Every structure is written in structure tokens, then in C-alpha cells.
Amino acid sequence: MSDERVSRPPRPQAPSGAEVFGSPLPPLSPWAVAARTARWLERHGRRLAVMVPFLWLLLFFLVPFLIVLKISFSEPVLAQPPFAPLLELADEAGSLYLRVQLNLSNYLMLLQDDTYFRAYLNSIQIAGLATLITLAVGLPMAYGIARAPARFRLTLLMLVILPFWTSFLIRVYAWIGILKNEGFLNALLLWLGVIGEPLVILNTNIAVYIGIVYSYLPFMVLPIYASFEKMDASLVEAAIDLGCRPAAAFWRITVPIAFPGILAGAMLVFIPAVGEFVIPDLLGGSETLMIGRTLWVEFFNNRDWPLASAVATILLLVLVLPIVWFQRTQGTARGANVKR
Prior knowledge:
Layout: H1 17-21, H2 30-72, E1 87-92, E2 95-100, H3 105-112, H4 114-147, H5 150-161, H6 168-179, H7 184-192, H8 205-229, H9 233-241, H10 246-257, H11 259-274, H12 278-283, H13 291-301, H14 305-339
Antiparallel strand pairs: 1-2
Helix pairs in contact: 2-14, 3-14, 4-8, 4-11, 8-11, 9-10, 13-14
């Protein structure tokens, strides 16, 4: 019997990558990479732009606040750092327990001692009045710069921000030389014959107001100037042509248009002025009680970090909650206007 081989069909070969996905991709040129990157940024750029400020707030606001909040529930101890940990791992009868110790006495201390309440109240009062004075000075300045010839505006703005080129501490120390009894201001007034004896200005609340208004005036001028620059001057001219007095046209047309800038400037001045420490310490007297000096005393003199952290936490809540409420109210009002 002769050998007969059975013919079998050839095995199917697995398709290669080139047959499935096409020919291998050629290396991308730099122009193609740049084009793809541009398309990706165009698709996700807005999301990244929104994430940057949120990341900034997370790292430099929320995380430090959580650290201060944690310390405020601790107990002061003679150690380094000078506060007890909140979480403690205890070993009892061979079992491990995680203990959480929250100390509320720091916040109770703020309610029992009226010194802290007066410090909060004085800080808000001084910061509020200083903000109004800064607004009264900064509003005409911003309006004058916005209405000045275009070739002079940049120079005027540079003069407004020129003090920032010098150290804040040096500028405050300069006011000591101006306001003291033998200072420049009293010497000038005596030379002019306005006063007969030197005025006591240094180490008073008046000196604190002067220091705050001088230091934070640019923060008021610049936002208001930005609002005035966008305003159409023909609106005021039309109101005057229709019989409105210039002063009335200013308050009825100019000020409402500049209100967003006024609000932004007021917040930029009021918020840091409430917690100001350098100006009250150098220009104010011993009776000038502000929360910034209280925090300094508790942190560095008394070494009571938990109590100082509780003071800082309450101060932050006092400042943040009204701002959040106002923003939500404004957002609701804008939404209602859009629906109409």
C-alpha cells in the first residue's frame, strides 16, 4: 500500500500589526506635536485656567487654615512645639487605641474674657473708618486719573504705586519721624504759625488712621480707576444736557458705574486693615487695642499657640462669612436680572 499524504489547508496566519492598525505611524514632527498640544490646550485650557486659582487657594489658604484650626483645639504645653497633639496612639492591655482630644477651653476663653471682644470690635471699627477715609481720598484721585489726558495717565498711575517700591516697614518708620512731637509736621505747623505748641499725634488712634490710609490707598485707587476707565463719558454729558447738575450726575451715574471697583477697593483695604499689626504697634499707643497685636502677644510673649490660633480662627470666620454671603447675594441678583 503506497503512502498517501492527506492534504491539509494551510493554517491561517495572525494578522500583523500593520494589517490591523494600518502602517506604522511615522515619527511626529515638531510642528505636529505643537499642533496636537495646541488642540489639547484649546480643549482643556479653560479647565486648567480655573484649576490654577483653586490650587493656589488650596495650598496657601485652606491648608494653613486647617493647621491653625487643628492647633486651636489643642492644649498648651511646655514643649516644642508648645501644644499637645490631637491624635494620640495609646496601648492599653495589649490593644492599640487612637484617642482624639479636642480642647474647647480656648474658644470658651474668648467668650469669658472681654479683652478679646474689645480687640475684635476696635479692629473692625478702626478698619471700617479707615476704609471710609481711604475711599473719600481715593475716589477723587481715581476719577481725576481716569479723566486726565491719555499721555499723563501712566505717569499718574506710576506715582500711585511708587510707594510699593520701598519697604512697608521703612515707610511706617518714616511716619514716626513725621508725626512725633519734634517731627516734620509739627515743625511745619509751628513755622506757619498754625499752632502754638506741638500736637500729640504719634501713639494715638489718629496716627493709626494716617498709617492705614497711606499704606492701603493704592489698593483703593487702582480698582476704582479700572471702573472709571471703562465708563463712557458721554453718559454724564447727556445727563447734564438734560438738566442734571454735575454733582447729581456724579452720584447718580458715575458712582453706580464705579460701584464694583469701590466694593473691590473697600475689601482690599478693610480685610488686611482688620488684622494689621505693624501700624498699630509702631504708630499707635498702648491703648490702641487691635486683634493683630493681641495675636502677637499670645503667640510670642505668652507662647499660648492654641489660644492664639482660636483668636485667628474666629477672626477669619468674621471676615470670610460676610464676604461669602455678599457674593452669593450678588450672584442671585445677577441670575434674577438675567431671567428677566
